[in-house]
Amino acid sequence: MLSGEFDYIIVGAGSAGCLLANRLSADPDKRVLLLEAGGSDDYPWIHIPVGYLHCIGNPRTDWCYQTAAESGLGGRSLGYPRGKVLGGSSSINGMIYMRGQAADYDRWEALGNRGWGWRDALPHFIAMEDHFDAARPLHGHGGEWRVEKQRLSWEILDAFRAAASEQGIAPVDDFNTGDNAGCGYFEVNQKGGWRWSSARAFLRPIRDRANLTVLTGAEADRLILENGRAAAIAFMQQGMPLQARCRGEIILAAGAIGSPLVLQRSGIGPAPLLASHGIEPLRILPGVGANLQDHLQLRLVFKIRGAPTLNRRAASWSGKLAMAWEYLWKRSGPLSMAPSQLGAFARSGPGAATPDLEYHVQPLSLERFGEPLHPFPAFTASVCQLRPESRGHVAIGGARPDAPPLIQPNYLSHPQDQRVAAAAIRLTRRIAASPALSRYLPEEYRPGLQYRSEEQLIDAAGRIGTTIFHPVGTCKMGRDELAVVDDRLRVRGIAGLRVADASIMPAITSGNTNSPTLMIAAKAAQMIEQDNKQAAPIRTPSPPAKETWT
């Protein structure tokens, strides 16, 4: 048992947890505990942008989850990366700064979630941001979350942008004004050519606060409920079972996979699931683990001629040394690359009110992450449906925290998702056939021109589709029968317990999900402070806290 009681216990030091620790520990009278199941972020490849290639699939930094077999993907099981380190997935992700569309948040509000519209979300995005362009409207400057331009350019990407324009996808410079339609280079969460994770942005600057205790290698097991209130958290550290008591609130920030698993092991979730693992049901909430949504990317590969790509540049030792030298002296070039450099947002058809497709375009190609680049020059145009209708679920695989979870996204299980996937392949082919790319003689390598009919294109989507690592929604906010939290992120029927991470999204945002998760955490911290000021509980003295950075 850790000595004394904490005012706030945050479970998970990922994107949301690091920001929550920053904001909640700003009050020196509040004692805060931050638990992280992974380790420290001292692995060098975390901080070099191209190091995601060494972090994804690495058990040192990635939980290395696997999905169940997916019928929509021809029975394939996918690797499902999640960060296992301070900073969570922001320490291994693609670093793309993306807020989504104004309509995403207005939709949340229309579903009955008061205070979650675009007008409410935008001030939080701006307040945390440190944007490189001081003259850019609707952006913040001086916040913790650094946003910079990428430090590279590729001829083939400029040509793709021109080809997209020829297909009606206009060039844009800013994807983050509320309408992200168009094509342009992504802005990234980097600082001076280094990855800028939530741990570096929000946790490192406050690590000396006397009222903050940070424990790594501390895997949450279950919540301890007393009289309908979350009173403590049981966790494992270095093989030892420990507990920490809370007189205020416990906030789950373990992500769309981790947070529902903690709830389910605690007896909070669907009754049949709890019964199947011999867990006493303390609060029946059918939506815990349900409503899983993710962006399925279709990775189309085109061989080209007459333009450099990373496939050739990285094939020789001289090329690799040149890239290392450029990064060492300039913090630029391929080692500073985010996984995707050029983006585009487009409509799959006239029925889409706002763009429902997102492209991640790369001057390289490979079969899958972790495998060698192809031995020929090529580019990859990955395209994902932004607002999928398919819904999956997450469930514990056993009552112990070391039991592998069941992750079932159910990709392409909805007919609308199948239609959009086929339309996305057709649009990508039209872009590749546009005059601006003709001089490079693009030749479709994946999936291949043998797939032409609607049924064939749906089959092709299942063959080349893979996750783009954006799981959300498994502890959804709302008022319906699957809602787990209310619009102040309080778990229904359990006092002193909230969830504040990507799992609370009722519907996935139209773009990369990391910065929207930070917005959720910032808004949650504000609500927690407001609600606890109103409650004004009687406090009992505790021994002074001394930070632990283990």
TrEMBL record:
It comes from the Bacteria. SUPFAM superfamilies: FAD-linked reductases, C-terminal domain, FAD/NAD(P)-binding domain. It is an enzyme of class 1 (oxidoreductase). GO terms for molecular function: choline dehydrogenase activity. Its cofactor is FAD. Residues 531-550 are annotated as: Disordered. The keyword Flavoprotein applies. Its EC number is 1.1.99.1. It holds the Pfam family GMC_oxred_N. Keywords: FAD, Flavoprotein, Oxidoreductase. The keyword Flavoprotein applies. Residues 83-106, 255-269 form the Glucose-methanol-choline oxidoreductase N-terminal domain. PANTHER family: CHOLINE DEHYDROGENASE, MITOCHONDRIAL, GLUCOSE-METHANOL-CHOLINE GMC OXIDOREDUCTASE. Belongs to the GMC oxidoreductase family. This is Choline dehydrogenase. It comes from Pseudogulbenkiania ferrooxidans EGD-HP2. The lineage of its organism: Bacteria, Pseudomonadati, Pseudomonadota, Betaproteobacteria, Neisseriales.
